[in-house]
Amino acid sequence: MSLPKFEFVAPKTVAGAISLQKDNAKFIAGGTDLLVAMKRRISSPSVIIDLNKISNLKRIKWNKKDGLRIGPLITLTQLKENPLVGKHLPGLSQIVPLISAPQLQNMGTIGGNLCLDARCYYYNQPVFLKKKREPCLKAGGQVCHVVKSGNRCHAVYSGDMAAPLMALGTRVKITGYSKTKELALRKFFSGSGIKPNILKSDELLTDIIVPPQPESSGFSYRKLRLRDTLDFPLLGVAVFIDLDEKDGRCKDFCLILSAVGPSPVVVEAATKMMRGKRMTPKLMDRVAREAQKKAHPVDNAASSPGYRREMVRVLIKKAIREALIPFSKV
Amino acid sequence: MKELIILTINGIEHGVLVETHWTLLDVLRDKIGMTGTKKGCDNGECGACTVIIDGEAVLSCLILAIQAQGKDILTIEGVSQDGKPDTVQDAFVKYGGIQCGFCTPGMIMASRALLNKIPHPSTEEIKRGLSGNLCRCTGYVKIIEAVENASTTEIT
Ligand SMILES: Cc1cc2nc3c(=O)[nH]c(=O)nc-3n(C[C@H](O)[C@H](O)[C@H](O)COP(=O)(O)OP(=O)(O)OC[C@H]3O[C@@H](n4cnc5c(N)ncnc54)[C@H](O)[C@@H]3O)c2cc1C
Ligand code: FES
Ligand code: FES
């Protein structure tokens, strides 16, 4: 399907991009989410503001205090191949092959991935299939075709980078017309399927800051999908573990579930249960069961909610074991 | 409103009048007449439209023609040299990596980009490298065999 018409601008600075924002304009980075949505007439911006000419947004820097500072226009392939990422956060490069497919990794950016719109089986259908039903909440209507009772939009945030970045304590910088702010990535998500992040239309995500990781830590991201390529996550689990090397007790633990709702879910209870404890299979199982209570998949993806819920436990245990690989004794 | 842009395709500059909302794929096929690059899903899901831009395999159905200005675009029409097929093309013919041929241009471009980055990939790396390209005919086995063989005959 062809794209709807729009005006195209490609400013060279962040300030330029922000000043060009007006009603119904959209920023474009890699375009792999936005252009598909436009072809399906899910989005029809009157102006497209291309961010690709802004060289400031294409850098990766490292310093000991802040860690990695990643520009949002860095493509997933650049992230995978960057020597600074490889040296300081190899776990991050290893996530890239789990996302979409090589051509899309060459095009899609890390910023676009975090700003990805939420998805739903009903909402993401081509427009001619949707015509017979009244518009859903995300399309400006009053109903949800997935969960009929209630008035909440259940579209799923399905980006793969957010959960692992959150587990690593990432912060993001947002630049607006008159001010900039820095906040934890976990505060970047709104909890609403209608608009999954808190960005205003004239705000840009301008920095992704991943702090240096303690040497005694391990990390893992596991993803559930039907095909081993191209598919969005049906479930994502990110785990971060910091262990006291002397006694093998857990100093810090973070568990994030992704693709089970409109925002990635931080399982706070898991952190409380793990801190100060040794990682036994029994404890891992208890944590996995506790986390499962936080996941409420609904019938809006390629596999059943029951299966996805069941897989929460399975994937959490796999992720914890993988995160523990650097610690030989456990 | 149409805009005159210059696209560098296979080393040759083409001046084309385009609408801002035209994809590179549509401009290649319908305006320049290079129909080697195929349109399968037009949505990023099949890889049939793969071209190489500045050394990376990308999907021409998800790039605006206007964004491809100033870049080096390589299409299937440009991979042969001096009238001789590329080693990857030769290998696809020799090892039966082609049946109906619809996925072939995309497969060749993705394989070419892979071999430029990793001259001697493992089978696993070939599978990953081609995982964005769907083929409804061959069952992939012969395609993978072709790329494996191209990688060993290639003079690097
Ligand atoms: C077939 C297919 C499979 C896919 N599979 C996966 C998958 O498995 N996992 C996954 O995570 N994704 C997947 N994707 C989605 C997408 O390719 C990636 O998420 C990609 O990283 C998005 O980045 P982009 O630069 O292309 O985004 P764009 O399409 O350019 O932008 C997406 C949104 O973010 C906004 N935006 C972009 N950058 C900024 C910024 N700096 N500041 C403010 N707003 C911004 C845009 O306005 C737009 O609304 C898939 C896509 C396709 C077509
Ligand atoms: S036509 Fe571009 S990916 Fe299918
Ligand atoms: S040969 Fe027919 S689709 Fe691949």
By CATH, the topology of one domain in chain A is Enolase-like, domain 1
As laid out across the biggest beta sheet of chain B, the strand order is 2-1-5-3-4
Q: Name the structural class of chain A.
A: alpha+beta
Name the chain pair with the biggest interface and residue counts per chain. Answer: A-B, 30 and 29 residues
Which sheet architecture does the biggest sheet of chain B show? 5 strands, mixed
- Bound ligands, each once: flavin-adenine dinucleotide, FE2/S2 (inorganic) cluster
Structural class, judged by helices and strands of chain B? alpha+beta
CATH homologous superfamily heading of the largest domain in chain B? Beta-grasp domain
Q: Could you state the CATH homologous superfamily of one domain in chain A?
A: CO dehydrogenase flavoprotein, C-terminal domain
> How would you describe the shape of chain B?
globular
Q: Indicate the mean pLDDT of chain B.
A: 96
What is the alpha-carbon Rg of chain B in Å?
Answer: 15 Å
Q: What is the number of helices of chain A?
A: 12
What is the CA–CA distance across the termini of chain A? 54 Å
Helix content of chain B: 25-40%
The share of residues in extended strands of chain B comes to 15-25%
Number of domains of chain B: 2
